[in-house]
Amino acid sequence: MQKAIDIHSYLPHRDPMLMVDFIVNITAEKAETVFTIKEDNVFLDNGVFCEAGLIENAAQTCSSIVGKSYLVDDQAKDIPNVDVIGFISSIRTVKIHKLPRLGSAITTVADLISRYDTGGYTTCMVNCKSYCNDELLLEGEINLFIQER
Predict the structure, then answer these.
(1) Domains with residue ranges and CATH for the chain
(2) Which of 11, 44, 72, 114 is the most buried (most CB within 10 A)?
(3) pLDDT digits over 86-109, tens only?
């Protein structure tokens, strides 16, 4: 049994745009998250989680890798009063294999491919895959821009 890590320490997102429930595992180069689709989700359409929701879930999983360096110190303690903004700067590739339904639990795994830190902002490329019950839902490469305000 793995310990769940509170996502709020790694992402600035809040409801209704938070598409990750908790982090299962995170390092400087990899993150694994879990998200259960609930009936009040903004990306739910007739009981199906749409493509934009899957992409947002993947992007949030990916950004938690870099977000960790802005929001958590070397002793794994939250850094107070940090305001971070981030967005998808480009989607290099994305392939949607299947859309999950209401109540499904999505596991997303992200692997850092490259990272460039300027001191003022970070850009990175991350490979990601999302699964439901070991069935591949999404795979792709996302470029992110993250900056402390």
Answers:
(1) 5-148 (3.10.129.10)
(2) 11
(3) 889 999 999 999 999 999 999 999
